[in-house]
Every structure is written in structure tokens, then in C-alpha cells.
Design a protein that fits this description.
The chain is built from 16 helices and twelve strands. It has two domains: 7-130, Rossmann fold (3-Layer(aba) Sandwich); 143-372, Winged helix-like DNA-binding domain superfamily/Winged helix DNA-binding domain (Arc Repressor Mutant, subunit A, Orthogonal Bundle). The strands form two sheets. The chain has a seven-stranded mixed sheet, sandwiched between helices. A five-stranded parallel sheet has the order 2-3-4-1-5, sandwiched between helices. The longest helix has 20 residues, at 167-186. The chain has helices at residues 7-16, 31-39, 53-59, 64-71, 88-98, 111-118, 143-156, 160-163, 167-186, 195-207, 215-222, 226-238, 267-273, 286-304, 349-354, 368-372; strands spanning 20-24, 45-49, 76-80, 103-108, 126-130, 212-213, 242-247, 260-264, 310-315, 321-328, 331-337, 359-363.
């Protein structure tokens, strides 16, 4: 069963505005399937898979005339995994500028690789769209289904290929996914790295979701430099494996401002990294899983709605904390995540004094529909 992706409307909007649509996302998150769905609205689409060396050769260092001969009378050209083509940004720019009637959709599994090759040539010509794993809205048609599906997402995440498998088969597929694709996308052949260190770093990050992460502390536990930890974390984020939230701060003196929280873009991958697929009711990390779920689902929703929102968490020197802080235009929102529906939470007095104009909500299984998805 094909699941409708909310990112599709963003891609179609970009193409209708004569912009090059650039679709980012982790491997196997559904980019190719989505691109082919978009192509169904065109009369003569052309799909080019850059895993094919012949396609790469045909797109590398070609003139505008040669490129036109290659794409023929296509009205949409899909360049899948475009980061594999040297100077792909210049190739795309040539097609776009020389043949403006041709729509272009480019996908890439690594923000780092593709962005480095297209950012400068395509300035002002492109629109970036990020495709996350499936969201709770995409797999649910109503609130009742959402209430059932969030349990599944805490266990096995939202990769399309595993969503309709049995639990046992999904866990096996996720273990293969985590082991096979993390390094391929995060660390290209030209990047030097220590696989053992990366394994240990990912495990450390997986065990401390919802907690503040210190690069210095991670470096000490891994016996590597702080700079190496910072570099690896940055690469993992650019490969869409993890997501960082920085601290919200206006008063540098009172608020700490040097740490960050790190969440996993997909909880199924996170659970596979630490090999923990125990039943949710027996797990001691359920609260952390819920917080990760809430943070990432909110980010998925905001991206799908194309809203310009800056997301943070807040913590002061007295160790008082708020899980999610959002700035949207002149609005300030604060959310606290609680798995227990009977739990209460108060905004720290120091926060409300410093930022008097804000809204506050407790995100639990009874309220997440109304708080995260609006």
C-alpha cells in the first residue's frame, strides 16, 4: 500500500514555481518512491539513477547541447542520488538555464555531499525539501489510529519498508538497516573515520536521548579529541541519522548555552543500534523514547507545513528545564513532554519572568494530537 507523503505538495509547489526541487533524506526513507509519484503528473518524465555508472558518465562534464541530447523531450528530469555526479550543481544549472521548460527534481541521501556540490551554482534557483521517515500523520487517518500507531513508532520507527512488516521481521530489517547504511551515507570514501569509534559514539548517543550532550564528556569516554566528536556528530546529522537541538538563550549570563540535546531521526534505527526491541511496557527508557518521538514528530509536522520555526530546549544554571521551545515570528511556545497522562508540569518561574509572553502545553499521549500537530 502506497502511503501519501506530505512532502509531495512541497515538491510540486517548487516545480510549479520553476524552481529546482532538491529532495534530501536518509537512504530508504522513500525518496525514489516519492519522486516517481511526482512524475505521474507529467507527460514525459525521465528517471536517472546515479547509482548507474553510465548515468553518471552521461551527466559529468557535458555541454548544454550534450545534456539536451541525453534528456531528449523530457518535461521532468529526476536525478536520483545526485551527489554521485561530480560537479552535479553545474550540470543541473546548465539544464535549468538552457532549457527552462524542463522541470528538475534532484534527490540525495547525504546533505553534506549533495549540498557541497550544488549550493553555489544553484543559488536562487532551487528549493530544498527534507523527507523524514514516515510521520504519525502519514500512517494514520484519524486520532484513534494515531493512538495505536505511536506505540509502534516508539518501537520500530517510520521507515516505509518496515512499517507493514510483523514486529519480528521489522526488528530484523532495522538491524540490517542500521548496520548497512549508517556509514555509507554519513562517511563517504574520501572521509577518514574509525568505525569502532562511530559504533561507540552512536551507542552513547542512543543511551542518552533526552539528556544534554557534552562533546567534552563524549570525547573523554571515547578517548578521542573533542574536535573529532564534533566532526562525527556533524556528519551524522548531515546524513539525517540524528538531530540536534540547541539551548534557547537570550540572557547569556543566566542560561548555560554550551550544551545540546541529540535525538534520533528514527527510533527504530536507535533501538537497533543498542539492540533493544523489548516490549515497551518492560523498558526503562520509555520516557526518553516519548520525548524523542515528540521532538521529531513536531519537526516533521513543521517541515511538512513549510513553517519557518526555530526549535530549541531551555535549561538554566539552576538545572530547570523545558523540553521544547519554539520561536515562530513573534510567537514563543513552550512544551513539556510527559508519557504519564496524569503527570503535571509547571513552567519554571525564572523562565516566565524572563519571557512573559509565551504559551505552554504538556505533551502526553492524550494531548499530542492537539499540541504537536497544529
Amino acid at each position: 500500500m502506497l502511503i501519501k507523503r506530505h512532502a509531495q505538495s512541497l515538491i510540486e509547489k517548487a516545480l510549479a514555481s520553476d524552481l529546482i526541487a532538491i529532495l534530501y533524506g536518509a537512504r530508504q526513507v522513500g525518496k525514489t518512491t516519492l519522486a516517481k509519484e511526482v512524475s505521474k503528473k507529467f507527460a514525459n518524465p525521465l528517471y536517472l539513477n546515479c547509482d548507474d555508472p553510465n548515468v553518471v558518465i552521461s551527466l559529468t562534464n557535458k555541454s548544454a547541447v550534450e545534456l539536451k541530447s541525453y534528456i531528449g523531450n523530457a518535461d521532468l528530469v529526476i536525478i536520483d542520488e545526485g551527489q554521485r555526479v561530480k560537479n552535479i550543481g553545474i550540470t543541473i544549472k546548465l539544464i535549468h538555464d538552457s532549457y527552462p521548460e524542463v522541470k528538475l527534481l534532484v534527490t540525495g541521501s547525504s546533505n553534506l555531499d549533495l549540498a557541497n556540490k550544488i549550493t553555489e551554482p544553484l543559488t536562487g534557483r532551487s528549493e530544498e525539501v527534507l523527507l523524514y521517515p514516515l510521520s504519525i500523520r502519514e500512517v494514520s487517518s484519524n486520532r484513534l489510529e494515531m493512538d495505536a500507531h505511536w506505540h509502534t513508532m516508539l518501537d520500530r520507527g517510520g521507515y516505509p519498508a518496515i512499517w507493514q512488516l510483523s514486529a519480528q521481521d521489522a526488528h530484523k530489517r532495522l538491524s540490517n538497516l542500521a548496520n548497512s547504511y549508517v556509514y555509507r551515507d554519513a562517511f563517504g570514501p574520501q572521509v577518514m573515520f574509525d568505525q569502532t569509534v562511530i559504533n561507540n559514539l552512536l551507542r552513547l548517543l542512543a543511551y542518552q536521548i533526552g539528556q544534554e550532550a557534552s562533546y567534552g564528556n563524549l570525547a573523554g569516554r571515547l578517548s578521542i579529541s573533542k574536535e573529532t566528536v564534533m566532526r562525527y556528530v556533524d556528519l551524522l546529522e548531515k546524513a539525517f541519522i540524528i538531530q540536534r537541538l540547541g539551548q534557547y538563550r537570550r540572557n547569556q549570563r543566566v542560561e548555560v548555552g554550551r550544551l545540546r540535546k541529540i535525538y534520533f531521526t528514527d527510533l527504530g534505527v536507535r533501538n537497533a543500534i543498542i539492540d533493544n526491541f523489548k516490549p515497551l511496557e518492560t523498558r526503562d527508557d520509555l520516557g526518553a523514547l516519548w520525548e524523542n518521538f515528540c521532538v521529531i514528530e513536531r519537526l516533521k509536522f513543521l517541515k511538512a507545513e513549510d513553517r519557518r520555526v526555530r526549535s530549541y530546549y531551555w535549561r538554566n544554571s539552576d538545572q530547570r528545564e523545558i523540553d521544547i521551545i519554539e520561536e515562530e515570528s513573534d510567537l514563543l511556545r513552550a512544551y513539556e513532554t510527559k508519557l504519564n497522562t496524569k503527570s503535571t508540569a509547571r513552567v519554571p518561574l525564572s523562565f516566565s519572568r524572563m519571557y512573559p509572553d509565551f504559551t505552554f502545553g504538556i505533551v502526553n499521549p492524550d494531548t499530542f494530537h492537539d499540541l504537536l500537530l497544529v
